[in-house]
Design goal:
By secondary structure, this protein is mainly alpha-helical. The protein is built from 19 helices and 2 strands. Helix 3 packs parallel to helix 13.
Length: about 525
């Protein structure tokens, strides 16, 4: 056996050891949940068994949320190299758990988004089977999506699962079909809004800073404004979304709080940027460093809000089962015991640490190339889109917003790159036959000009009679050669397909699991 073969064997063995370690830690967590639930909750008989099973599945669901969904909050920061993978995992873990335990709330709706009518189910045992099937189906679908590298909506996964299990348990009368229209609308609304808002922020940064001759001076004026908008947006976002379960406020009050804090943030940012500007190089790389600290803060705040909200996707059905076992009735809202919240928070943190890096890399660097400015725009789109959607009453998904923001900045870069390439080709056509030095001198002047200067140079050329060197068709073919795709199209198609099939796939899985539970229970009886 040669050295190359030995190295390949050792690499494969190392990968196997890492996978075994991850599986082992996950198994230990699940066993601890099983032991705690069976020894402390005092439930006996078939319902006690179902509670233990649901607790185990709830922990499995939480780990899958950590593995898939949390990447949207820290992926752009890692992809832009603002923070390392280890730093991102630590920040996300701490703030996800803090959000879940501090602001996760003490009561949860037993049926997400009112997607089914619990009164139609009626029977407590059927309701427990329904929720168990939904929890397991949502977790399995998230696991599948993570395995194929597709970031999907946890909320849509559990909604689809509850719908499928509800239809299996109570027939078509159990579903609130009117709610499905809003969910389907969010497939389009969330990524489009997120992409447009992220692209708008990036265009603002380019026009306000990086397209200026003196970028440092432009940054002194523009970056404090951007930070003020960020403080305003995230303050309102946290009040509306992150703290909504423990502090109920309206949109107007949230915006007012955000505005006050935004002004404070602007005053502090002016002094901070002024101190940093003296040490900055007048380059794009130098300006990028101004966005590192705001981006880290954004990642932490997004993680806190996500933990406060999405932990309910893991523990909501489990809390509903625990309440049904305790009270013997089906309720529209159920209290969340502390142990249930800890299962959700710890599961999200463990899933993130064990399996999160793959999805973080996917969102951060495998769809389009990100730097700190672009990643900042994506984080901003997440907060602003939620505020806009709340004001308009539109359903949105945080996962779809974040990934849509990645698409938005990537497609804007494609558009601007294509427009720049067209301008260069236009210049070369108008200098056909001229000396090489003349062409290069004009191109150097064009590259160094401000945005307005570039427009004037192109306008002057257009007023001149251009020689008919190439036909329209030939120019079109030439543009195709120079066109660059800065967004990986295969990832766009894969992720879009996963979004579309999430609800029906989770629904089908849940129905099958419900029928399996129903069959096992009746076979035993």
């Amino acid at each position: 056996m040669d050295l190359k073969s030995i190295a390949q064997f050792e690499k494969a063995a190392k990968g196997g050891r890492n996978e075994s370690f991850r599986l082992g830690v996950g198994l230990i967590f699940v066993v601890m949940i099983m032991l705690y639930t069976s020894l402390t909750q005092g439930a006996s008989g078939p319902q006690g068994v179902m509670l233990v099973a649901a607790a185990i599945i709830g922990g499995y669901m939480a780990m899958n949320i950590g593995a898939n969904d949390v990447a949207n909050n820290v992926g752009p920061a890692v992809g832009s190299k603002a923070i390392s993978m280890v730093g991102a995992l630590l920040i996300a873990t701490v703030f996800e758990m803090a959000g879940a335990l501090i602001a996760g709330g003490d009561v949860v709706a037993t049926v997400q988004k009112g997607i089914i009518n619990a009164d139609v189910i009626g029977d407590t045992d059927r309701f427990i089977w329904l929720m168990t099937a939904a929890l397991l189906a949502g977790a399995v679908w998230l696991n599948i999506a993570t395995a194929v590298g597709a970031p999907v909506s946890t909320t849509h996964s559990i909604i689809g699962a509850v719908l499928g299990a509800g239809l299996a348990a109570g027939g078509s009368a159990a579903a609130n079909w009117g709610q499905l229209g809003g969910i389907a609308a969010s497939w389009v609304i969330s990524p489009v809004l997120g992409g447009v808002i992220a692209a708008a922020f990036l265009y603002w940064i380019k026009r306000g800073i990086t397209w200026r001759g003196d970028m440092v001076d432009a940054a002194r004026r523009t970056v404090p404004l951007l930070i003020a908008v960020m403080v305003f947006a995230f303050s309102a976002y946290l009040v509306l979304k992150g703290l909504s379960r423990v502090w109920k406020t309206g949109v107007a009050q949230a915006l007012g709080i955000g505005a006050v804090l935004g002004v404070v943030g602007w005053r502090l940012a002016v002094a901070w940027v002024r101190r940093r500007a003296a040490m900055l190089a007048n380059t794009k790389a130098g300006i990028n460093t101004l966005f590192t600290l705001p981006l880290i803060c954004a990642a932490a705040l997004l993680s806190f809000a996500h933990g406060a909200n999405d932990v309910a996707n893991a523990v909501g059905p489990l809390a509903a089962i625990a309440d049904a076992v305790r009270s013997g009735t089906v309720s529209g809202r159920a209290p969340i015991p502390l142990w249930v919240m800890v299962v959700g928070a710890a599961g999200i943190a463990i899933g993130l640490m064990l399996y999160g890096p793959r999805m973080i890399r996917k969102v951060g660097s495998e769809i389009t190339e990100l730097d700190q400015m672009r990643a900042f725009c994506i984080a901003m789109s997440a907060a602003v889109t939620v505020i806009v959607a709340s004001q308009l009453g539109l359903p949105v998904s945080s996962t779809h917003i974040a990934v849509g923001g990645v698409f938005g900045v990537g497609f804007l870069r494609e558009f601007l790159k294509r427009r720049h390439t067209d301008a260069i080709e236009f210049i070369k056509m108008h200098h056909a036959g001229a000396d090489k030095e003349v062409v290069e001198r004009f191109l150097d002047g064009f590259a160094a000009a401000t945005l307005e200067g570039k427009r004037l140079l192109l306008a002057q050329l257009k007023r001149q009679a251009a020689p008919a060197v190439l036909s329209k068709f030939e120019r079109k073919q030439l543009r195709k050669v120079y066109r660059q795709q800065l967004v990986k199209r295969s990832e766009v198609l894969k992720i879009a397909a996963a979004w579309v099939i999430t609800v029906p796939a989770a629904a089908l899985l849940a129905a099958l699991i419900y029928y399996a539970i129903f069959g096992m229970v009746h076979a035993r009886g």
